[in-house]
Amino acid sequence: MEITKLKYFKVVANMNNISEAAKRLNISQAVLSKAIASIEDELGVALFDRKGRHIYLNRYGELMLNYIDSAFRELNEGERIIKELTGIESGQVTFAVTFPHVMPLLIQNYVSRHPNIKIKQYQAISERATHLILNNEVDFAISSSKIEHRDISWEPIIQDDIYLTVSKEHPLSQCTSLELTQIKDERLIGQIEG
Fold it and tell me: Is 15 exposed, middle or buried (0-12, 13-18, 19+ CB in 10 A)?
């Protein structure tokens, strides 16, 4: 059924008069009558009892009106929610991160420009982040390692240099760059910025 015809049906049902409903809808009486007849033909049952110039919903029409009202409420609510979720000034952004300590720096500027956006963050290892993305539970994920899956596009957003400090006597002191495998057997001390 066409949504326009269902809107016409609602107006006629509320006014109990085809000619008055046609005036309100700014269409001809013939077009409105044809739309109502089309709905009744599609359903295979009359929805109105006609008495002179007035028409009244019968039991099938009342039942149909209840469902149409319910459908329009649901459509309006769906539209409202989608507009809220995708709106620039309101809504929610949901994401997963594998290294949450960097997120405040990455989103600080965005949050200051859009204070009404709700931020929901999951801390997740890459496997969990992949699961969240594939199940549409998050809008995106930020990970320290590449997420490889045929249904996921992965793009680097920042590159961070990692530095190794050794004594001048250490065999690696002459290197200008290293592969991580070269230090796999070394005892390391990490520095945490505080």
Answer: middle
